[in-house]
TrEMBL record:
GO MF entries: ribose-5-phosphate isomerase activity
Protein name stated in the entry: ribose-5-phosphate isomerase
Matches recorded under PANTHER family: RIBOSE-5-PHOSPHATE ISOMERASE 2-RELATED, RIBOSE-5-PHOSPHATE ISOMERASE 3, CHLOROPLASTIC-RELATED
A biological-process GO annotation: pentose-phosphate shunt, non-oxidative branch
Family as reported in the entry's similarity comment: Belongs to the ribose 5-phosphate isomerase family.
Organism of derivation: Arachis hypogaea
Length: 175
């Protein structure tokens, strides 16, 4: 899979006062320039990816894009090859390793993004870290409901030297 990272440059935008959401939107719109007619497209979740979803919708309404098959509107069983996936991330290290899922989506996004030919990650500067875990914020792990306390305890024990605490987050709740 080809991978890419889009970050709006604060230098080129230095004359403007932009909010974090403005930066997310600029990045998302840039990523959507990679979308072509007839593509199978994976669109992720979160406040950055939302701008990309909105932009694709706008271009479809305007007739500037056509015949787009969206995953998960469709699914990987019927469309096992995804031409392009666009999604945000919570942390990105210099080697393009990612932390995802702090917004509550993890497994399905990873499945779609693992099946794509090209994955464009859209972030603002605040997501850049020197190493994974560098933000000091939570690391999401999606588990099945069956014996989740047992799994939480196993996970916490794995990282006990770092004093990590495993906490349950249920569907739709932020970390
Ligand atoms: O669980 C959510 C996804 O992994 C998001 O892509 C990630 O949390 C980034 O979200 P946002 O763009 O809202 O910061």
């Amino acid at each position: 899979m080809e991978a890419g990272l889009l970050i709006p440059s604060p230098l080129s935008l230095s004359q403007l006062i932009l909010t974090q959401d403005n930066l997310k939107k600029i990045t998302a719109y840039k990523a959507v320039e990679y979308v072509e007619f007839g593509m199978v497209l994976g669109l992720g979740t979160g406040s950055t990816a939302k701008h990309a979803v909105d932009r694709v919708g706008e271009l479809l309404r305007q007739g500037k894009l056509k015949d787009i098959i969206g995953i998960p509107t469709s699914n990987l069983d019927s469309h096992p090859v995804v031409d392009l996936a666009i999604d945000g991330a919570d942390e990105v290290d210099p080697y393009l390793n990612l932390v995802k899922g702090r917004g509550g989506s993890l497994l399905r996004e990873k499945m779609v993004e693992g099946a794509c030919k090209k994955f464009v990650v859209i972030i603002d500067e605040s997501k850049l870290v020197n190493y994974i875990g560098g933000s000091g914020l939570a690391m999401s792990v999606e588990v099945i409901q069956f014996c989740w306390k047992f799994t939480a305890s196993r996970l916490q024990n794995l990282f006990q030297e770092s004093s990590c605490v495993a906490k349950l987050r249920t569907l739709g709740k932020k970390a």
